[in-house]
Amino acid sequence: MNEKYKEYAQFFKVLSDPNRLMIVDMLSCGELCACVILEKFRITQPTLSHHMKALCDCGLVTGRKEGKWTYYSLVPVQVQNMKNFLYLITANKEACICESCKPEDCNE
After folding, report:
1. Which tens digits make up the pLDDT trace of 10-19?
2. Dihedrals φ, ψ of 48, to 5°?
């Protein structure tokens, strides 16, 4: 299997959680303190830390410490890479993975 599919599958796996999608949505407005993110959810701080670790580990989010607080933001390059990959796999193109498939080969 092509490595890019494996790589992006990890992103989509991380984003398959509704809370993580909401966090990404929140971070689309800019950097936020973990305390601000936590206020929007009915979860504990350790649960938020778990979600943030998953988002950071896949490279979509970055965190920085300032005193006792952690501030999170999206990694713009990774966001754009994900958009480009999603477009690539959903757009009609000449060099497609299915170029050798023919409708008559389907058993419907």
Report:
1. 999 999 999 9
2. -60, -45
